[in-house]
Recover the amino acids of this structure.
């Protein structure tokens, strides 16, 4: 078809910070790639490895985990730090299954950082665009 | 009278050994019924059509396995998967991350002094090893490597009397006698050292013990022998991924062994018997 | 009802043109109406309007809906509105799912209608898929005990206790030392009113001043004070805490002691009085100061020789040397933590600890409080101290020790300089500073006063300090304006930082309160919830939350009174059950969840399984990700619901 | 029937899947093939990159009938690679477990697989035995249970034990278990004698059947320690067809002596002795090899039976039926050995473990599995991860003989078999069963010497 590869990026956003930042980006009429698809979770610490892996299984080309700022920014004390550890371990696992760790990234931002939200998601979506499709069989519904 | 068949696919016959080890119980169990096909115990060569109950052991590794499985399923009313190979693909699924051609080449290829690959009328090896339920419908599953003999007996009894077999819904830790103190040691331990404290929970001591994510019913025998649970019975709830659950639990406890060792190493710890059904294995299925 | 086959109603809001301008709302409605499980799909200009809400309610009845998806603005705006709509229509409010197609869609792609419409489809599809797994979630009530525990009886704790007692609640106050008053009682006169620190009247008191410690606190029938007491453990949750307190023996019966002082006269042991930082001496049985509250002697176990002379001489038989520590269990609804701070001991800095004439401001405060003439004296040789140098920011605003500003040291230094100058205008005072920070009302006056009284201000860092043969000190100062200066001093006073005491760490562990990176107790939100903590029902005030002066401390104390009173006045708390819950069959009792829960919301039952205390759980779901046995799920965000949202948002059209 | 093929599929009452094909041409048997169609499970590849200390528990899944042998060969290989010597008490426990395995495996084979033929039952299965001779069935069950119970007591589980870890055993043998085993062991002794006698009698009763299993002479391979019967340690010896010890080598040198040939019609490979080439160098392993290798049986019932065997078949015995008798003799010996070990108080010693240090190395572990010599050969890296593995199972080693004997048997029977094809095929099956082939094992026979 010759059309540009349009990646699918799932952005798990914690309700208190990242989701708020995404809202504020909209309110500020800032734009970011439409390929970024937001899934709301109460806290980034809620995100299981299973959720991330299943997102890839379901056809995602990249996954973002977005939580509150480090050093006390987390509404649930340190859920974001737990998420970070999990993401680190999963990056390794993704490398081993041939998906590549660069398709998973964790970002930290506060609800008042719409510009960061836009910057991170744009940058990530570009990265995935360049990497191309993950080449997974999309699971039949 | 129920007609019964047993089928073994790719596996180690351990489930049949368990069946045989029911001894008098097996004789009694089968008395009012008829064992019509059991390649290891009887001389019949084909599964009759129809048959009431088929127990299938082993996973689907070759085209031949797949054919026989489909044929058996088509002839059977109640189809029971027995053992972890049939239920989850079993230990041989750890090869699912490897390329089939490479497997064949490395296994039969560069061998001294003469070299040739098996060919002719041998069944084709499938791209990956599959659990039974990914090929045909299964009515009941009795997991374990091998399943406990009491469990097999009671499940069979239940099925033969028209009921539903009851498996434990708890986890192995529930039956483990080791003491938990609620404190995880951050160190990752391997079984190159026997636990120093033989009364203490092995997970807490730093071993990768799959007990928390594995279905109970085995009386935690491995733990009683001071060896961590290998997860051979699969998760208590089959919709979960036992290995990913452990990976999750251990990473945030700071024991992210997976970031030290490769997936190839750790899959044998987290997914030793259930890799074929794990989400990680599914991620391999490329277009 | 939730187990029934889903009948989903999808309500697409135009939000005027906010959504409709870039999202083709008609096409979106059409798309949604064709999805599996959708019983009706409607679009309307303003769903949040009365008419829009009515439309939803009518549709719920007409189509027997059991799930509602509202595609509109962010749930941060109107989730509660629409939940109420569901309630009013007889549906459980948690059967609502919002699809955020404004903030996260129409506004982000204002001029790209195709993109916006496509993305809206993803978002709505995800919400519809997720809604299928939503379940009814109820709420329950928990009673709240009308009693409070106040930890610490310094300025903050006393004010909090008094306020809570004024509300009519039973208040238990525990204090680790034998007497109340904390640091405030040692400061002498305090700014900005220059009255005596131990006698400050509470805001609400009678017209004439009363000594706070003697009158109100001790005589209030609703306040029960436990001195020499420490919190050993805490269980329970908001409304139903149980605190276990260990009280060390006083050995003197407070009720029988008549303050005759005979015991102290008879006591053969004499040691430095820590209340005065060793400037005075006391006996093993003692009152640290005349105004001490409770007004009863105490025997210091660590120095008492058990000679029994005091027992013999006591006329009221108030003394019992055999008294043992006791354990007290207190059942309370709320807790105020007001454990205060300590002055940083800058060992090794500016010869502190090596040279007796290098002291801290607190010691100077004690010296000034005891003065009997126009001079204060060098501690080394008792000669009048005529040249005094104060060094600011010792241990504060310094990466090597504490990066934060201790906030009150500037005022303390100016207050002391002013007092000294007023006592004796001949005294030469130099203050070496980095910045002088005086943001409080009426504070600037101290600065102008000091300038008028001839206090010298030197902008720079003291870089060297040496002892002269006559025991005076020579200081080298690197000036901020360039160059150096040299100062001679009889006394060097360090304005030392405010820090939390070591035992506060242990307390934070017992209470499960988080500490901020600077080491103080962490408030729930620095701006919006400055006295609340990560644990519901526990509040913090005073310097344990960060450096502050007296007015601020009292502000916060009063704030905690107001907040702690809320559940206690209501007598109950409502707990929605959108919380984690444990499948006891699967639970293996590993206590992983309890270990990672930031709120101590998970307890281990006697049956060896975990139990979520719903009143405490805040629904973060950290435990869910953590559980190796997959025995915990979070209502409203269980695995199926999250995965349905993920798979929905990714599904091919 | 002039030309064509006769097939038996699946061969029943053996472990695993195989097919026998007899090729006919001009009323003559032209060829025979023993196809192992059991799927390959690639255990050697599977081990790569895994913690070596996990190998004993992973590799035993190769076989559900003789897991103990794999468990122990594997742990020995890891210990050899890591240069680690477990305490004597641990070795005693392992020997006990190996004997237990022999009891459970042999009783299973004799009772469930072989006897139905030899007793010429109508219902050729254990169910038939239970019907005809409940007492015999009951003693088979008891013996089988005793063997499994030993494995469970020492290994933690009856099938797929877990206790052998590099450095020793994860647990000692508890006193009460030892007492229990002693009691059942004594009960089983008589049953084992009876079973051996029964096999001896069969030798007399079914002379005609047995005679047709005289199918030639081969070499034999087994462990031996100074000419004595050995299951766990010692050297590997090669016995020539006349009963002379030709070669003796250390386990670690096995690949200098044994080579493997890929066979087009089988997922297993044919091993042979390098010195003699293929097919001259094919050899047999298992109960018969072990008895032939043993210089002199001690006194008692074992010695009597060995004499009887020698009298009937010569020494070394080559008749393939002798495998079944040898198996019964080993069963007697195993129960005796188990009782000896259990009687010695040393079996309860607590000191069963020394800490192993993972390191780079190569190790070969050889034990005698019920069906014969079992070889595990691993290389590990400095982290103790397996980098290469090679496993040679007994059935693999017997497969060339099974095939050549099938051909010979078919050829000898066929001219007379016209109209009795079923009888011929049945005899071929009986022949194959005598080897007690375990085809789940046989598929893992691989050498992973990757070309550089």
């Amino acid at each position: 078809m010759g059309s540009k590869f349009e990646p699918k990026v799932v952005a798990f956003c914690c309700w208190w910070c990242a989701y708020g930042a995404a809202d504020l980006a909209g309110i500020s009429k800032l734009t970011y790639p439409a390929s970024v698809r937001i899934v709301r979770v109460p806290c980034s610490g809620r995100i299981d490895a299973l959720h991330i892996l299943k997102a890839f299984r379901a056809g995602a080309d990249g996954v973002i985990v977005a939580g509150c700022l480090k050093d006390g920014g987390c509404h649930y004390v340190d859920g974001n730090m737990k998420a970070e550890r999990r993401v680190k371990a999963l990056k390794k696992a993704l490398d081993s299954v041939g998906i590549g760790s660069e398709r998973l990234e964790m970002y930290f931002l506060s609800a008042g950082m719409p510009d960061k939200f836009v910057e991170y998601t744009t940058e990530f979506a570009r990265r995935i665009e360049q990497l191309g499709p993950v080449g997974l069989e999309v699971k039949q519904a | 009278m129920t007609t019964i068949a047993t089928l073994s696919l790719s596996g180690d016959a351990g489930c049949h050994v368990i069946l045989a080890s029911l001894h008098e119980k097996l004789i009694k169990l089968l008395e009012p019924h008829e064992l019509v096909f059991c390649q290891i115990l009887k001389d019949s060569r084909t599964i009759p059509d129809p048959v009431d109950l088929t127990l299938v052991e082993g996973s689907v590794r070759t085209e031949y396995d797949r054919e026989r499985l489909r044929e058996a399923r088509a002839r059977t009313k109640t189809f029971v998967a027995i053992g972890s190979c049939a239920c989850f693909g079993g230990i041989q699924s750890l090869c699912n991350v490897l390329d089939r051609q490479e497997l064949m080449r490395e296994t039969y290829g560069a061998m001294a002094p003469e070299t040739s690959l098996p060919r002719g009328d041998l069944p084709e090896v499938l791209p990956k090893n599959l659990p039974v339920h990914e090929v045909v419908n299964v009515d009941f599953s009795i997991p374990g490597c091998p399943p406990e003999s009491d469990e097999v007996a009671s499940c069979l009894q239940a099925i033969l009397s028209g009921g539903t077999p009851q498996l434990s819904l708890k986890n192995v830790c529930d039956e483990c006698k080791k003491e938990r103190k609620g404190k995880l040691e951050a160190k990752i331990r391997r079984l190159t050292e026997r636990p120093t404290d033989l009364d203490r929970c092995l997970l807490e001591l730093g071993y990768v013990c799959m007990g928390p994510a594995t279905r109970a019913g085995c009386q935690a025998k491995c733990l009683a022998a001071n060896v961590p649970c290998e997860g051979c019975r699969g998760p208590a709830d089959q919709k979960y991924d036992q290995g990913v659950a452990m990976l999750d639990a251990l990473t945030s406890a700071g024991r992210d062994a997976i970031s030290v060792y490769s997936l190839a190493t750790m899959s044998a710890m987290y997914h030793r018997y259930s890799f074929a059904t794990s989400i990680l294995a599914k991620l391999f299925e490329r277009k | 009802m939730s187990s029934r086959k889903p009948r989903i109603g999808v309500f697409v809001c135009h939000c005027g043109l906010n959504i409709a301008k870039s999202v083709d709302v008609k096409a979106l409605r059409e798309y949604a109406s064709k999805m599996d499980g959708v019983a009706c799909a409607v679009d309307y200009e303003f769903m949040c309007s009365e008419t829009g809400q009515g439309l939803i309610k009518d549709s719920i009845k007409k189509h027997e809906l059991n799930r509602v998806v509202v595609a509109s603005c962010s749930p941060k705006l109107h989730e509660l509105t629409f939940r109420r709509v569901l309630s009013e229509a007889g549906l459980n409010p948690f059967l609502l799912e919002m699809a955020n197609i404004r903030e996260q869609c129409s506004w982000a792609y204002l001029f790209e209608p195709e993109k916006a419409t496509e993305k809206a489809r993803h978002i709505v599809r995800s919400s519809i898929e997720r809604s299928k797994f939503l379940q009814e979630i109820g709420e329950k009530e928990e009673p709240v005990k009308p009693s409070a525990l106040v930890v610490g009886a310094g300025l903050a704790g006393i004010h909090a206790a008094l306020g809570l007692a004024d509300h009519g609640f039973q208040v238990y106050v525990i204090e680790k030392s034998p007497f109340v008053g904390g640091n405030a009682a040692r400061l002498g006169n305090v700014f900005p009113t220059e009255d005596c620190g131990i006698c400050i009247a509470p805001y609400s008191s009678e017209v004439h001043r009363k000594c706070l410690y003697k009158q109100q606190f001790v005589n209030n029938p609703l306040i029960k004070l436990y001195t020499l007491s420490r919190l050993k453990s805490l269980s329970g949750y908001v409304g139903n805490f149980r605190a276990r307190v260990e009280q060390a023996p006083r050995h003197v019966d407070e009720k029988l002691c008549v303050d005759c002082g005979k015991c102290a006269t008879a006591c053969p042991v004499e040691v430095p009085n820590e209340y005065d930082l060793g400037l005075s001496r006391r006996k093993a049985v003692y009152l640290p100061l005349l105004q001490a509250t409770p007004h009863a002697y105490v025997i210091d176990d660590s120095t008492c020789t058990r000679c029994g002379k005091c027992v013999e001489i006591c006329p009221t038989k108030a003394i019992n040397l055999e008294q043992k520590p006791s354990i007290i269990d207190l059942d309370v609804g709320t807790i105020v933590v007001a454990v205060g701070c300590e002055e940083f001991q800058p060992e090794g800095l500016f010869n502190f600890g090596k040279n007796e004439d290098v002291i801290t401001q607190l010691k100077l405060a004690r010296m000034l409080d005891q003065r009997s003439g126009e001079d204060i004296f060098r501690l080394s040789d008792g000669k009048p101290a005529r040249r005094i140098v104060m060094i600011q920011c010792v241990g504060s605003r310094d990466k090597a020790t504490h990066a934060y500003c201790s906030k009150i040291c500037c005022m303390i230094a100016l207050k002391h300089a002013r007092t000294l100058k007023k006592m004796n205008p001949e005294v030469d005072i130099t203050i070496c500073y980095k910045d002088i920070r005086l943001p409080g009302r009426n504070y600037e006056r101290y600065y102008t006063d000091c300038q008028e009284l001839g206090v010298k201000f030197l902008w720079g860092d003291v870089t060297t300090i040496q002892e002269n043969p006559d025991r005076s000190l020579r200081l080298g100062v690197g000036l901020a304006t360039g160059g150096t200066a040299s100062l001679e001093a009889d006394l060097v006073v360090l304005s030392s930082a405010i820090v939390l005491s070591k035992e506060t760490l242990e307390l934070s562990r017992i209470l499960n309160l988080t500490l901020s990176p600077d080491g103080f107790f962490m408030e729930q939100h620095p701006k919006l919830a400055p006295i609340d903590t990560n644990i519901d029902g526990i509040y913090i005030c005073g310097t344990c939350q960060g450096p502050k002066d007296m007015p601020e401390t009292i502000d916060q104390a009063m704030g905690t009174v107001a907040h702690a009173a809320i559940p206690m006045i209501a007598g109950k708390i409502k707990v929605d059950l959108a919380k984690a819950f444990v499948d006891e069959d699967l639970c293996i009792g590993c206590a992983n969840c309890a270990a990672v829960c930031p709120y101590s919301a998970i307890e281990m039952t006697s049956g060896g399984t975990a139990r979520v205390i719903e009143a405490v759980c805040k629904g973060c779901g950290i435990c869910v990700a953590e559980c190796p046995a997959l025995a915990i799920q979070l209502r409203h965000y269980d695995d199926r619901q999250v995965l349905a949202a993920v798979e929905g948002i990714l599904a091919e059209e | 029937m002039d030309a064509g093929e006769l097939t038996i599929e699946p061969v029943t009452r053996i472990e695993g899947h195989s097919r026998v094909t007899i090729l006919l041409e001009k009323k003559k048997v032209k060829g025979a093939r023993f196809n192992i169609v059991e799927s390959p499970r690639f255990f050697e590849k599977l081990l790569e990159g895994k913690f070596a200390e996990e190998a004993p528990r992973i590799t035993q899944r190769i076989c559900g009938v003789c897991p103990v042998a794999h468990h122990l060969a594997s742990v020995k290989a890891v210990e050899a690679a890591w240069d680690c010597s477990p305490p004597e008490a641990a070795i005693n426990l392992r020997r006990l477990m190996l004997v237990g395995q022999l009891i459970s495996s042999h009783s299973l084979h004799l009772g469930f697989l072989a006897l139905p033929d030899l007793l010429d039952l109508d219902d050729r299965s254990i169910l038939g035995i239970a019907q005809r001779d409940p007492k015999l069935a009951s003693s088979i069950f008891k013996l089988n249970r005793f063997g499994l119970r030993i494995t469970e007591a020492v290994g933690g589980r009856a099938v797929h034990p877990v206790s052998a870890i590099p450095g020793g055993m994860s647990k000692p043998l508890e006193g009460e278990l030892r007492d229990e085993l002693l009691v059942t062991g004594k009960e089983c002794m008589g049953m084992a004698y009876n079973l051996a006698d029964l096999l001896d009698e069969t030798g007399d009763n079914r002379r005609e059947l047995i005679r047709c299993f005289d199918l030639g002479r081969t070499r034999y391979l087994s462990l031996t320690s100074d000419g004595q019967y050995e299951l766990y340690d010692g050297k590997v010896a090669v016995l020539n067809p006349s009963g002379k010890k030709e070669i003796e080598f250390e386990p670690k040198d096995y690949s200098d002596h044994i080579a493997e040939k890929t066979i087009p019609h089988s997922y297993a490979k044919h091993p042979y002795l390098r010195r003699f080439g293929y097919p001259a160098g094919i050899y047999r392993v298992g109960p018969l090899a072990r008895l032939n290798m043993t210089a002199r049986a001690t006194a008692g019932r074992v010695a009597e039976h060995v004499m009887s065997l020698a009298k009937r078949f010569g020494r070394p015995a080559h008749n393939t039926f002798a495998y079944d008798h040898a198996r019964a003799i080993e069963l007697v010996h195993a129960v005796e050995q188990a009782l000896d070990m259990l009687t010695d108080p040393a079996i309860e010693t607590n000191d069963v473990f020394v800490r192993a240090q993972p390191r780079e190395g190569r190790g070969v572990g050889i034990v005698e599995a019920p069906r014969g010599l079992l070889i595990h050969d691993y290389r590990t890296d400095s982290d103790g991860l397996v980098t290469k593995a090679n496993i040679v199972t007994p059935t693999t080693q017997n497969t060339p003989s099974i095939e050549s004997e099938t051909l010979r048997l078919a050829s000898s029977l066929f001219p007379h078999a016209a109209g009795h094809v079923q009888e011929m095929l049945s005899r071929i099956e009986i022949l194959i069963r005598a080897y007690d082939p375990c085809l789940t094992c046989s598929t893992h026979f691989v050498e992973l010497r990757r070309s550089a």
In short: The two ends of chain A are 25 Å apart (CA to CA). The mean pLDDT of chain A is 88. Helices of chain A lie at 18-27, 49-57, 79-96, 114-131.
